[in-house]
Structures are given as C-alpha cells and as structure tokens.
Amino acid sequence: MRKLLIVAGAAALMVPGAAVADHVKPTGSGPGGVVNTQNPDGFRNRGQCESALARETNRQRQNPDERSTDRQGDSTSDFQLAMRDRFECGYDESADAWFVFLSH
Length: 104
Description:
By secondary structure, this protein is an alpha+beta fold. The protein has helices at residues 2-19, 46-62, 76-86; strands at residues 87-92, 97-102. The chain has a two-stranded antiparallel ribbon. Helix 2 packs antiparallel against helix 3 (76-86). The chain is elongated.
C-alpha cells in the first residue's frame, strides 16, 4: 500500500508539468508541414493544440506588426479568417501527439 501511495504521488507531480504546452508561432514554410516550432514534441490533446494556436492567432490579430508582411494590412476579421483557413491541428499517430499543420 505504501508503494502504491508513493507511485501515485510521483505521478501527480509529473502530470502538471507534462500538461503545460508552449505557445505556438505559426511559421511554416510550405503546405502540409508541421509549424509548431516552439513545441516540437506536439501537444497531448487537441484542446491544448487548438488553445495554443488560438492564443498565437489572437496575439497577431491584436498587433499587426507581429504578422507576416503580406498580412499586416488585413483587417482583424480578415486576418482571423485567413489564419483559420491556413492552420489546423492534426493528430500524428507515429508521435502520439497533436501538431499545428499548414492546411494548404
């Protein structure tokens, strides 16, 4: 019983650190490529992936200077639509993780 408690305690300490996801900066170089360069190991679930992508999209939407040069003149709504059309989260079975991909 004591060993079980020690193992459970150790697992509880490890899970929060593993669940933390770095935010994503979409900087892909071509269609279909993985673009979450700041978290190359991917995300544990789709929610973490979508959340990181949304945070980065919103950061760039609010500050046009952070966008790529061809998107700096877009209105905030046009930029938001373009980002949703261009990037998506997808599951990679071989890595058992979720990644941000260029959708086209």
